[in-house]
Amino acid sequence: MKTANYYNYLPQRFATDDVRANQVRRFIYAFKSGERKAVDFAIDIVSVTLTKWYGASCQDYVLCCVPAATNSKYIRRFKRFAAEVSKRTGIQNGTKHVNIAGMREAKHNNAHHIVSESFGYAVSTDPEFFEGKNVILFDDLITTGATANEFAEELEAVGANVLGAMFLARTIRMKQTTK
């Protein structure tokens, strides 16, 4: 799947004095928390990008946010974001056609950045809405791409054509050294 991102993200486990790396960290965490200023900035940059890429034909596409760990986190993180991007660009809002049950336990702190699914976690999509639609996924952060790829497969199983994914940031892979 094609992906695009705006920033590089250095995980917290790596100490840095780099001003830019720390700004990106703060932005990602603020966006994840639903802080208005961060969400508004993300709305601006994503809306401008989609308009540049697709112009008036944005209406022919669907923006769908990748599921979060819980439905409440998904709504807090993406509801206003997706609605506003849709309003500004004309892209269809697929996020409101996704529901999450249970809770996914993230285990990003291991060597392989594996996210393990907890018991009872399930994502459901509206097949009637997604069938035959050209979908662009969105998420705040990509590490391995596994979560986005799994969601793309779920959407394709109900008839969607997933074109690619946009991320605010991509995790930088670094080797951890011990002294």
Short description:
The chain is built from five helices and seven strands; from the N terminus they run βααβαβββαβαβ. It is α/β, with parallel strands linked by helices.
Could you characterize the architecture of this molecule?
The termini are far apart. It is built from five helices and seven strands; from the N terminus they run βααβαβββαβαβ. With 179 residues, the chain is of the alpha/beta class. Strand 6 (134-142), helix 5 (146-157) and strand 7 form a beta-alpha-beta unit.
Q: Summarize the amount of helix as a percent range.
A: 25-40%
Radius of gyration: 16 Å
N-to-C terminal Cα separation, in Å?
38 Å
Secondary-structure element series = EHHEHEEEHEHE
Mean pLDDT, to the nearest integer, reads 89
Number-wise, the strands total 7
Backbone structural class? alpha/beta
- What oligomeric state do the depicted chains represent? single chain
**How many strands, what sense, and barrel or not for the largest sheet?**
5 strands, parallel
Give the helix tally.
Answer: 5
Please mark out the parts with pLDDT under 50 across 5 or more consecutive residues, or reply none: none
Q: Which of globular, elongated, flat, extended, rod-shaped describes the shape? A: globular
Instruction: Tell me what portion of residues adopts beta-strand conformation.
Output: 15-25%
Enumerate the strands of the largest sheet in spatial order, edge to edge or round the barrel.
1-7-6-2-3
